[in-house]
Amino acid sequence: MEKRIITAAITGAIHTPRMSPHLPVTVDQIADEAVRAYEAGAAVAHIHVRNQETGQPSSDINFFKEITAKIRDKCNIIVCITTGGSLTMPLEERLKVIPTLKPELASLNSGSINFALHPLLKKYKDFNFEWEQKYLAGTEDLIFPNTFKSLKEFSKAFEENNVQPELEIYDTGMINNVAFMLANGQIKPPIYIQFVMGILGGIPAKADNLLFLRNTAREAFGDFIWSVCAAGHSQFEMCTLSLLLGGNARVGLEDNLYLERKVLAKSNGEQVEKIVRIARELGIEPATPDEARQILSLKGLDNVGY
Ligand code: KMH
Ligand code: ZN
User: Fold this and answer.
1) Which of 76, 195, 215, 229 makes a 20 to 30 Å CA pair with 8?
2) Whole-prediction pTM
3) Domain count within the chain
4) pLDDT per residue over 195-208, tens digit each?
5) Residue 131 to residues 56, 83, 90, 114, 115: CA-CA distances in angstroms?
6) What residues does 4 pair with on adjacent strands?
């Protein structure tokens, strides 16, 4: 059986509590959801944290510490910590999880984009908390910054702490950025890419685009490991296509709140169960966390800082 890595992106910084009552917010909810995703077949949990009362994206290092400890207590899932944080956080705030927690894996956003969420305001008119409307509206005039200078600083911190970067690519030009970092020795093989499709400001989530990304990246770096995630209803289509093409798949409420049309997912675990069902129909088995550690050449849980 072929083994592929299923990642669950538990809560992210895109959706707001108004959009789903199932969006995990508290330390316990986020940790429990990661464990549930593990039980359903995920090898990796991608973690952001939120304000415990309002659900606003947060960079509180204590929340990260509590969540990683709680997850580690219950299972050996790989924790992939965000360094994207929220769309409005200063770079230093985004980066401090790396020296503090020294995780096995963390996201490294490989370029700047217009990261636009404001069209969601057409769908949602009333909100649970004041920040939600402002946060979404603010993205009409927002650049998610990841300049070459910050890429250099981020990759240095990753290397110093022996953290494997999961390189987030939101559009084709970012493949050049990663190739530049590789040529300059800022990152080293094995290269692990997460193609993030369907963000307004990035590449649309379409089959032709995924083939183009995969082929262009292959020309640029040769051998590499890759996964796909997609915003909203394209999630399962793009993840399935990735599995068909030899890639890995990321599901989770960070990217999509639904299980199927008009049906909210009650948990990340439900989405993991669905992609595992699809994978098995295709003759693909989900990799265990230890198998994923081998595939990604990770340093192992004995060497993390949590
Ligand atoms: N939250 C967004 C800024 C990451 O985790 O590094 C993008 C993001 C990527 O979630
Ligand atoms: Zn994220």
Assistant:
1) 215
2) 0.98
3) 1
4) 999 999 999 999 99
5) 7, 21, 18, 20, 17
6) 286
With a Cβ cut-off of 6 Å, ligand 1 is lined by 12-13, 82-84, 86-87, 107, 109, 144, 168
Closest residue to atom 6 of ligand 1, CA basis = 84
Q: Report CA(283)–ligand 1 centroid distance (Å).
A: 31
pLDDT in tens, 42-93: 999 999 999 999 999 999 999 999 999 999 999 999 999 999 999 889 999 9
Q: How far is the CA of 47 from the centre of ligand 2 (A)?
A: 7
CATH number at residue 93: 3.20.20.70
- Ligand 1 pocket check: which of 107, 155, 193, 194 to mutate, most ligand atoms within 8 Å of Cβ? 107
Domain that holds residue 261: 2-303
Residue 109 Cα: closest atom of ligand 1: 6
Q: Indicate the burial class of 262 (C-beta count within 10 angstroms; 0-12, 13-18, 19 or more).
A: exposed
